[in-house]
Amino acid sequence: MEDSKKRNSDASGKDIIFSQSVKAGKRIYYFDVKKNRKDEMFLAITESKKIVTEEGENSQISFEKHKIFLYQEDFDKFLSSLHNSIEFITTKKCIPNAKDENDATTDKEEAEGVPLLAHTINVDLDF
Fold this sequence. Notes:
The chain is an alpha+beta fold. It has helices spanning about 75-90, 100-110, and strands at about 15-25, 25-35, 40-55, 60-70. The protein has one domain: Nuclear Transport Factor 2, Chain: A, CATH 3.10.450.700. The chain has two helices and four strands. It has a four-stranded antiparallel beta sheet, with no helix packed on it.
């Protein structure tokens, strides 16, 4: 995690009163605490993913961004669901696609020796 930073405002005019970022490979997650016009605080979570098109001298770099706005009245529900989802992922074994019973048993036996955190977990949120 990077150090938190305090910024005055962003382009949308909402005050950012606290910001923290997490670098994760080609992605950066920003956690910005902002104030709305009524002086109420909320959390804006932004995923920024670096996209490189083409290769060599013709390569172009762009960033794909996805945002989630989380309001105080939803914090408890959000945290509870996030905690339950993470607990499920870290405690359950990988469930293979069920082709037929014999294939599923073989796949499950092969996957049992691999820690769940070694598997890639992708989350894609579109609004």
